[in-house]
Amino acid sequence: MTRLRVWEVLRFGWRGLRSPWRSLREIPGDASLPYARLLPGVIVVSLLGAIFHYYVVGQQWVFQIPFRGAVHALSSFALAPIVWGGPTGLGLYCAARWFRRSMSLGWCDLVAFRLWMVWCASLLVDCLHLLPGVSMRVVGVWWGGHVQFVMHAGWFFLFPMLLIQLTACWRELTGSLRLGILLAAAGLALMRLGAEPLPEIIAGVASRTFHIGWDYWVVAWHVSWAGAIPTLLARWWIARRDRRLHARSIVEMGAMSAQTVMP
Questions:
Q1: Neighbours of 247 (CB within 10 A)
Q2: How high is the pLDDT of residue 245?
Q3: CA gap 109, 117 in Å, rounded
Q4: From start to end of 28-157, where are the E strands?
């Protein structure tokens, strides 16, 4: 397998922002990522980005809310690379197997990393809200507005770029541009309208049905660790399986080469 270094992963991610289609084809299909070095950096940057994003959206620092809420909020963002990036890589890997593509789990994770970099870049667009007169809007959907989305400037970069990135990925996996666009749009809608507001949906159901006042960030924290554990277990099993298959293929190729050179 092609083991990438951290700077190579960053280079592929940066080039993905500039040229999503061409740069994706440059990623080795058998890529393996340096998770032990890459993941801590991703978590730290996610935390810093969360602090800035909370300030822009909430007009206050996360440290100004009650201590317990701040801890749950920051912990949720710390687990976000695992909770969101992990299933994304796994989903793409399963799709690659379904469409009989030879992309490794590392290749799929690198695509997920590129999506994370899109989120990081969208935070720079959110700086527009620091200017006077550039405000945000709250959009309520489902159940009479119980689920709310804060529309901010980053959306106008985030969603089109995510759609482009996902379309390029699905095009590479399926071989069809139309199917790629359809799967990209469906996946983006599922994550934004289904998975991301899940803590708010759970808190709303608990409040109306059982009259339990659950804080949003407390629910988000529980959803995060509940999603992180099975994600890590599934990824450990798949990575172990991939190593066995890779070792077996090397042995088989060696045996075939030995038979070829024998007189």
A1: 10
A2: 59
A3: 12
A4: 31-32, 137-141, 147-151
CA distance 87 to 63: 30
222 phi-psi bin (left φ>0, alpha ψ -120 to 50, beta other): alpha
The residue behind tokens 């608990």 is 206
Element (H, E) at 5: none
- Among 5, 7, 69, 2, residue whose Cα is nearest residue 31: 2
Q: Reply yes or no on whether the pLDDT at 143 is more than 70.
A: no
Rounded to two decimals, the pTM is 0.84
Q: Which two tokens stand for residue 146?
A: 């119980």
* DSSP bridge pairs for 141: 147
Q: Which long-range contacts (CB under 8 A, 24 or more apart) does 9-15 make?
A: 9/33, 9/34, 9/38, 9/110, 9/113, 12/110, 12/113, 12/114, 13/110, 13/113, 13/114, 13/116, 13/117, 14/117
Q: Pick the more confident residue, 200 or 15.
A: 15
Judged by average pLDDT, the poorest of 68-82, 126-140, 185-199 is: 126-140
Quote the CA–CA distance of 191 and 243 in Å, as a whole number. Answer: 30
